[in-house]
């Protein structure tokens, strides 16, 4: 049985990535993210993208799934790349877009090889030492869980509004895409908030 995850489905398996506990995977993802953001090196970004692709193959996700995942951020990547070329240089664009694609694939591997419940339990356990400082591990875990569900939902809404605009012959109209997208995303967020409030979550 598959579980909804950040950028894909949890896929049970017996690879070394599946056997690795969530803690080291979360730590590795955090370290990679910090390094990629801190060091603006196109070669490093491309190397990270190559490494992420190898992990995709080892995880059993398949290249088709990885391509489908990257397609969902294609518009953002293209806009970001074009803006960086205009404002800075091709090297800066390659670095930032490469970082984005690599981190999306790394996150996809994490969610494809880690059950959501195990991931959330690990977050709660890792944050327990911060409880005396006012951090509520359960609330952080809940927020992470909501993000896991909200991101694919938002991407799905974006695809639906894009298809609807194309069907109406308005594919060139930003308003035809953005207006229904914003309305539906806000409505979904309100519905989620009302559901949590009805269960007494977040009242304090």
Automatic annotation (TrEMBL):
What stretch or stretches form a coiled coil here?
none
Do you know which InterPro entries this protein is assigned to? ABC/ECF_trnsptr_transmembrane
What the entry lists under PANTHER family is as follows: PROTEIN ABCI12, CHLOROPLASTIC (PTHR33514:SF13)
- Family annotation (CDD domains): EcfT
TM region(s), chain numbering: 26-58
The record gives the membrane topology as: Multi-pass membrane protein
Q: Which organism is it from?
A: Nocardioides daedukensis
Superkingdom as given in the UniProt entry = Bacteria
Gene Ontology cellular component terms for the protein in this record: plasma membrane
Subcellular localization is given as:
Membrane
| Chief localization | membrane
The name under which this protein is listed is Biotin transport system permease protein
Keyword Hydrolase assigned: no
* The entry's keywords: Membrane, Transmembrane, Transmembrane helix
